[in-house]
Automatic annotation (TrEMBL):
Protein name according to UniProt: GRF-type domain-containing protein
Keywords associated with the record: Membrane, Metal-binding, Transmembrane, Transmembrane helix, Zinc, Zinc-finger
Pfam families membership: Zn_ribbon_GRF
Highest taxon, organism lineage: Eukaryota
Membrane-spanning ranges: 90-106
Residue intervals of the GRF-type domain: 19-62
Organism: Hibiscus sabdariffa
Length: 107
């Protein structure tokens, strides 16, 4: 069982492409509107000004329109929930600070 696992790991390691610069590509997840959640192999130096290090290869196939719209919708609602939670937390902080003020000055 353990042997199988190690074999799987080495297979995965062998799958990782190596860039022209000699570094092993890193797997990242894109969160752009065109490719939300799509995994990509890229050079760790990708995005830096040096033109030489531009290895970039999609790992996942292209996302169909329907799942893409669903993912973007979920991300949008997740963002709205997080925003609401932050606001709620800020209100609590103000409220607790106010209570502390009352307790301290025994108003
Ligand atoms: Zn590179």
């Amino acid at each position: 069982m353990k042997m199988e696992l190690e074999q799987d790991e080495s297979e995965t390691t062998n799958m990782i492409p190596v860039c022209n610069c000699g570094l092993r590509a890193e797997m990242r997840t894109s969160w752009t509107k065109a490719n939300p959640g799509r995994r990509v192999f890229g050079c760790p130096n990708f995005g830096k000004k040096t033109r030489k290090f531009r290895f970039f290869k999609w790992f996942d196939p292209e996302i169909d329109d329907r799942p893409r719209v669903v993912i973007l919708g979920l991300l949008k609602s997740k963002g709205a929930v997080e925003k609401a939670r932050k606001k709620e937390r800020a209100i609590w902080v103000i409220f607790l600070a106010f209570l502390a003020y009352l307790a301290f000055f025994r108003v």
